[in-house]
Amino acid sequence: MSIVLFQFNLSNSEILLIQEEEIIIGLLITIFIFLVLLILGMRKTYKLNAENERLANLDYLESDEKEQKYKDFTEGHLYNNN
């Protein structure tokens, strides 16, 4: 171990300690990743809400049900109402 340290002119404290700059860079990268995920999630939520509003305004199922008159389905040959 001392041979390796001597060749690279490193001390034990430089090998074992993590520099503050490395911690800050790691935290900034993590914050950036979560910020991107948050923005994508907010965008997806906005799109889903817009689609939900669009589908709610169509109202095509209720209009079809109101226009149809009741049809007696028991008058077929399966019920023997001849």
Written account of the structure:
The protein is an all-alpha fold and 82 residues long. The chain has a domain at 18-58. The protein is 72% helix and 0% strand. The protein is built from 4 helices and no strands. The protein has helices spanning 2-8, 12-16, 20-58, 60-67. The chain starts with a helix and ends in a 15-residue tail after the last helix. The chain crosses the membrane at residues 23-42. This is Membrane-bound spermidine synthase. It comes from Formosa algae. Keywords: Membrane, Transmembrane, Transmembrane helix.
Q: What does this entry show, briefly?
A:
Keywords: Membrane, Transmembrane, Transmembrane helix. The protein is mainly alpha-helical. 72% of the residues lie in helices and 0% in strands.
Mean pLDDT: 77
Proportion of residues in helical segments? over 70%
The main β sheet shows up as: none
- What overall form do the CA principal axes indicate? rod-shaped
- Number of contiguous helices: 4
The topology string of helices and strands comes to HHHH
Which value, in Å, is the CA radius of gyration?
35 Å
Q: How far is the first residue's CA from the last residue's CA? A: 102 Å
**Low-confidence runs (pLDDT<50, min 5 residues)?**
none
The assigned structural class equals mainly alpha
Count of extended strands: 0
